[in-house]
Design brief:
- Helix content is 19%, strand content 34%.
- The chain is built from three helices and 13 strands.
- The strands form three sheets. It has a six-stranded mixed sheet, sandwiched between helices.
- A hairpin with a 2-residue loop joins strand 1 and strand 2.
- The radius of gyration is 17 Å and the shape is globular.
- One of its GO terms (molecular function) is endonuclease activity.
- Keywords: Endonuclease, Hydrolase, Nuclease.
- It comes from Micromonospora coerulea.
Length: 187
């Protein structure tokens, strides 16, 4: 059995943002939810390629000043999250490690076997509580990616706007008008 290469002890209290700086830069995604540390393994190549294609599609339609970032840190109520893709408003600070929810127009999560429950249940609830206007969840199916598009409704929950699959490219308006065509993205 291999010995751990990094020695650390969990804090004697709930996890906080500053604790993240003491963790190794090993490719794992470290997020804090309600004082608990959540660790997910690095995504596979297919996940990364799909995230790059979605980011490129959003960026190609973006008005001037908007930024589309992969794996940007987000300060959410009760923790620190790392969406796969974050669309930053033009008013967002030009640089930083942790973004405030008010600076975000859209977050995108691409499901992986290790993140499915968080992407479907935990993270949308936290994004809604943070008042992020739009959330997309992308599933990688046998016939290609399917985008589930959500808008923040009354209260702090999302309402489904619709789905976009590889056989039905559509024009969407969130966070601006663009054409989504998952048939051009990797499976």
């Amino acid at each position: 059995m291999a010995q751990p290469t990094y020695e650390w002890r969990p804090p004697e209290r709930g996890w906080r943002e500053q604790d993240l700086f003491d963790l190794p830069e090993d490719g794992n995604r470290y997020e804090i939810i309600d004082g608990s540390l959540h660790v997910t393994p690095p995504p596979g190549y297919g996940h990364q390629e799909l995230a790059d294609e979605i980011r490129a599609a959003i960026r190609a339609a973006a008005p001037a000043g908007w930024r589309i970032i992969r794996e940007a840190g987000l300060r959410a109520p009760g923790g620190n999250l790392i969406p796969d893709i974050t669309v930053l408003k033009p008013s967002a600070p030009p640089d930083g490690m942790w973004t405030q929810p008010a600076d975000i127009a859209l977050v995108v999560e691409i499901e992986s076997p290790s993140s499915r429950r968080h992407d479907r249940f935990t993270k949308p609830a936290l994004y809604a509580e943070a008042a992020i206007p739009f959330y997309w969840r992308v599933e990688r199916g046998d016939f290609g990616p399917v985008v589930y598009r959500y808008e923040l409704g009354k209260g702090d929950h999302y309402q489904l706007l619709g789905t976009v699959g590889p056989d039905d490219p559509v024009e969407v308006t969130e966070p601006w008008q663009m054409r989504l065509d998952p048939s051009t993205w990797p499976r």
